[in-house]
Amino acid sequence: MPDEEMIVTPWKVSGRIDYRKLIEEFGTQPITDSLLERIKKHTGELHLQLRRRIFFSHRDLDWILDMYEAGRRFVLYTGRGPSGPVHIGHLIPWIFTKHLQDVFGAKLYFQMTDDEKFLINPEFTLEKSNRIAYENALDVIAVGFDPKKTFIIMDSERGGILYKIAVQVAKRITFSTVKAVFGLEESSNIGIIFFPAIQAVPCFIESVITGENTPCLIPAAIDQDPYWRVTRDVAPKLGYYKPAQIHCKFLPGLGKGGKMSASMPETCIFTTDSPEDVDRKVWNAFTGGRATAKEQRLHGGDPSICPIYYYYYYLFEEEDSKIKELEEACRNGDILCGECKIRLAERIKRFLTEHQKRREEAKDHIEEYLFREP
Ligand code: TYM
Prior knowledge:
Layout: E1 7-8, E2 13-14, H1 19-26, E3 29-30, H2 33-43, H3 48-51, E4 55-59, H4 61-69, E5 75-80, H5 88-104, E6 108-112, H6 114-120, H7 126-142, E7 150-154, H8 159-170, H9 175-182, H10 190-200, H11 202-210, E8 216-221, H12 225-238, E9 244-248, H13 275-283, H14 293-299, H15 307-316, H16 320-331, H17 337-362, H18 366-369
Parallel strand pairs: 5-6, 5-8, 6-7, 8-9
Antiparallel strand pairs: 1-2, 3-4, 4-9
Helix pairs in contact: 6-7, 7-17, 8-10, 10-12, 13-17, 15-17
Ligand 1 binds at residues 10, 77-81, 89-90, 92-93, 111, 113, 116, 199, 218, 220-221, 223-224, 248, 250-251, 259-260.
């Protein structure tokens, strides 16, 4: 059976993802060894997600470092479209963003696009997506961002400043561009046609508020890239720097192929899952193993197609030497899938227990993180 065609848009990711091809198609730059060396000068030991090339592509990251080295500060910008509970895939770019906030002391604008999710989901009310946005904000706070430097923008509540900047952006983007870049159709509602202008706004918010043109770096998975292509075209026309990006790969779902997606809840680990949920989902996961234990011992498994292996790689095994050992043990048939799954489930449960504790504590702190127009 031929591989399903690769599709990567902000609203759909499917097929076998070829990250090298995405760099070519999207016109981004790979993160090279020399760029990593340069980052290391500022961060000390490289973050796991850089060492393991989970963040693999960028635009203008070298320029951000030029500016930083010249004594200019930059802001970080990332976000969430609140369509349901947060899963551990979403945490990947957020954990890395927190690392960047820590090492560069940068302010973070975090956009909650409750408007986007209302517009895109026919059955959603605005109240529903706003309620989910507040639930999701607990997960953002639980990641550990600095309350003094983190500003969560609830889109539907911050119309004033968002709208004023968005119309400046929107005036400089044509319908044909939005149609081509986002794959929108004649039947798309006009709200979603306008929406890319709203997602562009936080790139400029610091510059608008302070009156000083301020560089902006966006860490996110590569599905969000179409927004930045459009925004980068507009930025100089408004007199602002083009926003820079650093892109990560997708944490896969627990099924065969594909990114972790809330639309398939049994192949998805939500941050609010119970220990029983984790045990069940991990136990039922697809693996790179063989049909029988005997075959596995004889021929070994294939970690390159195994979500269980990728979870260790992305999040649940800090030590590089242990990752290498695991990969070899799998390929040599020295470890069986059952054992590997049980160990992983224990780690996920431990991680979620901690996250859920911080998430609960966050309930008393939401106000401290909400962006208000100065
Ligand atoms: P959303 O809610 O689809 O995704 C939130 C963030 O998670 C990333 N992501 C993943 N990363 C790794 N593995 C996965 N399986 C995975 N699935 C999703 C997304 O790339 C994103 O970084 N429209 C946006 C909200 C938004 C935003 C932003 C995101 C507004 N402004 C600026 C990033 C940067 C959305 O719906 O994201």
